[in-house]
Known about the structure:
The chain is of the alpha+beta class. The chain folds into 2 domains: 4-84 and 93-105, Pleckstrin-homology domain (PH domain)/Phosphotyrosine-binding domain (PTB) (PH-domain like), CATH 2.30.29; 119-190.
Amino acid sequence: MPHGDWVAIELWVAAWGILVWRVLVNSVTLTRDTLVIRNIFSTRQVPLADVTGVGFRRGGLKVTSGHGSVADKRYTVGVGNLGSTYYSGLRSDPDALAEAIAYAAGLPPPPPRREIVSRNWAWAALAVSVTCTGLGICYGCAQIMADSHSLALGEAAAVLYGLGTGTLGLAFRVTRDHRRKRAQPAAARSRW
C-alpha cells in the first residue's frame, strides 16, 4: 500500500474518536418507569420496579436489579464514580444521584458513606508526597551535576520522584475535599 502509514494513522484517530464520543455520552437517564444507564461500551435499560438496591462499591455507583426468581444483577453507573470523595466522605453529585434513583425506585436512601482518610492523614499524605517529590528532584539534580554517576543515587531519585508525583494529586484532592467538607453548611451535613 503506497500510503499505509497515513491510512493506519487515520484508522487510529477514528477509533479514538469513537471512544471519546462514547465517553462523552456516558449518562444516566431516569424516566417514569425506567433507568437508562449509558456506559462506554453498553447501554442498559433497567425497569424501576426491578431495582432492589442502590449503593457504592469501591468508589463506583452500583444499581442492583432482580426480577422474580432470577438472580440479582448489579449494574455499574459510569457517571457515578466518587473520585477523591470516596476517601474523604464528602457529599457529592454521585450521592445525590444515588438518592434520586433510590427515591424513584421506592427504596430508602443509601446509607451515609464513611470517611476513609481523616483530615490529619490527608494533610500528612500531602506533606509526605511533596517531600518525596522534592527529594526526588534534588537527588536527580545532584546526580546530573555530580562528576561520578551513582546508580544508587539515580535509582533513589527515580523512586522518590515517582512515589511523590504518584500520590501528590490524590493527596491534594482529598485534602481539598476535607476543607470543603468543613465549609459545607450544617444542613447539608445533617442529611447524613
